[in-house]
């Protein structure tokens, strides 16, 4: 899901960093930006990102929908606030050694995506310029302090690791959703699908020898059509091996 372009980048940044807006006349506000953000996260965790609307949040908080706009300019800004807030759940400490450090960075992000799958649906297009997202990037870079790589290489590695985690986590989340929607495990799905394929001459494995061999072996190993967690850890090890070669570590 693309959030689009925020209407007022300046106000979004101020909200992310807790800079108060211009003073308002009238009674003291009943809520805070934090209340609105937390309500959005609760709804997204329960029902997905599409359920996060200003009206739904207003109902959750027991206020009029229009009153929310005194705290957050709109939904696009709210999603950036939710994203940055979720990044605040990531730990700050790192284990010793660059390889263990980067592995921890990836594992922590993998777990975060599974706690909040809606994070995988947000497409802001540009970095979220909030304190928790800055802290996330700082930690990712700190894991590589001992490697002696240049700044562009460090940034590219962060992007590479984040891309791997997001892609594998998306596959994991999608597989879980497919199982819930269909009421079938991968094994049940395959047991129903295989006889249908076997009855189609054009799908005979003789026409696809490599796909048939590799797919069968992998499926037997995974106990299903795929294993995103295995793909995540396999990919992470290969990235770490490549970094070691690049840095001579």
TrEMBL record:
Transmembrane segments: none
Alphabetic keyword roster: DNA-binding, Transcription, Transcription regulation
HTH tetR-type domain mapped to chain residues: 30-90
Gene3D superfamilies assigned to the protein according to its UniProt record, in alphabetical order: Homeodomain-like (1.10.10.60), Tetracycline Repressor, domain 2 (1.10.357.10)
InterPro entries listed in its UniProt record: Homeodomain-like_sf, HTH-type_TetR-like_transc_reg, HTH_TetR, Repressor_TetR_C, Tet_transcr_reg_TetR-rel_C_sf
DNA bind region: 53-72
Superkingdom in the source lineage: Bacteria
PANTHER family attached to this UniProt entry: HTH-TYPE TRANSCRIPTIONAL REGULATOR RUTR (PTHR30055), TRANSCRIPTIONAL REGULATORY PROTEIN (PTHR30055:SF151)
Protein name: TetR/AcrR family transcriptional regulator
Record organism: Amycolatopsis silviterrae
Organism taxonomic ancestry: Bacteria, Bacillati, Actinomycetota, Actinomycetes, Pseudonocardiales
């Amino acid at each position: 899901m693309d959030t689009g372009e925020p209407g007022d980048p300046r106000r979004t940044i101020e909200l992310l960093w807790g800079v108060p807006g211009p003073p308002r006349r009238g009674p003291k506000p009943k809520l805070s930006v934090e209340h609105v953000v937390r309500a959005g996260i609760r709804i997204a965790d329960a029902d997905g990102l599409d359920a996060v609307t200003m009206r739904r949040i207003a109902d959750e908080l027991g206020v009029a929908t229009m009153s929310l706009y005194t705290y957050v300019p709109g939904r696009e800004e709210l999603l950036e606030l939710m994203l940055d807030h979720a990044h605040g759940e990531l730990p700050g400490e790192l284990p010793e050694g660059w390889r263990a450090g980067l592995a921890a960075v990836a594992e922590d992000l993998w777990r975060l995506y599974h706690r909040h799958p809606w994070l995988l649906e947000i497409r802001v297009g540009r970095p979220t310029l909030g304190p928790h997202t800055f802290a996330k990037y700082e930690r990712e870079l700190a894991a590589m302090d001992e490697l002696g790589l240049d700044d562009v290489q460090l940034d590219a590695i962060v992007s590479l690791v984040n891309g791997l985690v997001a892609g594998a986590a998306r596959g994991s989340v999608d597989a879980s959703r497919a199982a819930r929607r269909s009421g079938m495990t991968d094994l049940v799905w395959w047991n129903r699908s295989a006889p249908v394929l076997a009855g189609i001459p054009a799908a005979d494995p003789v026409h696809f020898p490599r796909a048939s061999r590799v797919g069968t072996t992998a499926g037997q190993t995974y106990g299903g059509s795929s294993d995103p967690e295995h793909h995540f850890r396999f990919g992470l090890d290969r990235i770490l091996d490549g970094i070691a070669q690049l840095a001579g570590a």
